[in-house]
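Hey, I'm writing a tutorial for new members on how sequence and structure tokens pair up, and I'd like a real worked example in the thread rather than a made-up one. If someone can provide the structure for the chain below, I'll link this post from the tutorial.
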Amino acid sequence: MRWNHGEVPVLVNVRQWTAAALGDLGEDHLHMVLLLSTELLTNAYEHGTGPYGIHLHHTRTPCRVTVEVHDSSPDMPVIGRSRLGDNRGRGLIMVDKLAHDWGTRPTTDGGKTVWAVISCDIPDWTPCTSNSDVTPPATPPP
């Protein structure tokens, strides 16, 4: 599933699109995907340049979702240093602590993709409701 968008989308639209596309995830897994995809996309808009895009890939065995966010800036992200009372610098710290794995790669258009893998192999998480392959909506809302 991809969402390529040249303008800043309302993040609630991205979250709704993601939730609809991944509706068979367990509740805990879905909330983690929503949190980390929002963080990666916000980081791209605040520090990168457009056009922007988000791509989701869900594998069933093992149950994992990979979130990829693309922007046109060649500048790689830097994990911030959060300070008490500061309201910035926590996004990639959260991604680093909560994702199964994450990283960056340059793209052929001179930009970059920042990706995170969110695993549902967490004890006590609500299990996914389906093990069958489901094709999610290809086009997000405007």
